[in-house]
Amino acid sequence: MSKESIISSESNGQIKEIIKLQKQARERKKTKKFVVEGIKMVQEAINFKKLDKMYVSESALEKTAQSIGKKIEEIPYEIVADNVFRQISDTVTPQGVLAVVNMPEYDIKDILSDDRKSWILLDDLRDPGNLGTIVRTSEGAGMSGVIMSRESVDLFNPKVVRSTMGAIFRVPFCYVQSLTGVIDEIKSAGYEVFATAMEGSEVYDCIDYTNGAAFIIGNEANGVSDEVFEKASKRIRIPMEGKLESLNAAVSAAIIMYEIARQKRG
Q1: What's the confidence (pLDDT) of residue 200?
Q2: 71 contacts: CB under 8 Å, gap ≥ 6
Q3: Could you give the CA distance from residue 59 to residue 37 in angstroms, rounded to a whole number?
Q4: What would the DSSP string read from start to end of 200-266?
Q5: What is the pLDDT of residue 92?
Q6: Burial of 143 by CB count in 10 Å (0-12 exposed, 13-18 middle, 19+ buried)?
Q7: Residues lower than pLDDT 70 in the chain
Q8: Phi and psi dihedrals of 252, rounded to 5?
Q9: Residue-level pLDDT at 4
Q10: How far apart are CA 263 and CA 215, in angstroms?
Q11: 174 in Cβ contact with 107 (< 8 Å)
Q12: Cα–Cα nearest to 126, from 167, 103, 170, 157
């Protein structure tokens, strides 16, 4: 793995584009590209044939070549001076390798027709760490996919991407203009849609999810919106001891997803 030219200036066009992709959701949406960092995420992008170009710091060159192996001969890459690489990295301690990759895309109809019939709906979720953790957990729990309102945080935000630990390439997802419309569609197909709430009428593990179901996690500050609540089949709650008012959104989602998975295993 060797190249004569090394990108040594922050004014290089490719470097400017990477910085824009890291910082601007608008740029990511326009180009349908985003940035992944670290050898594990870059390898995922290669395996799923989503890699557009890889960028490696001078000091990480040999280690990266060893990690990627023969595939390095088949992918486009650039070598970047260490000081410039630090400018394009979004992490505190860069591993010295990142890649610009093409966004995975899914159709809402395919997600709704998935045989597992287990969906998580996110109503204006705003925290990047929560979204990344939910996507990662949904893979582990075997969900059909993650369906998000348009106002939810950008899935390709660098913090979200890191939190998914590669699940961003494997979990079907979709942003929808109308979450209430999706709820109507799920209900019309014969499946119940549950909204999480402190005042929920039923405890989450007293519900039978084995025939298929969807559940809604709301905004971290305001919970599920009134219009979405009205569309839900039932409200469910996670019982808590002590004086807690609520659980973290990602924790709540994980508890319910794994209850669904547990029931299906049984």
Answers
A1: 65
A2: 46
A3: 16
A4: -SEEGGGS--TT-EEEEE-BTTTBS-HHHHHH-SEEEE----TT-----HHHHHHHHHHHHHHHHH-
A5: 87
A6: buried
A7: 1-4, 200
A8: -60, -45
A9: 57
A10: 15
A11: yes
A12: 157
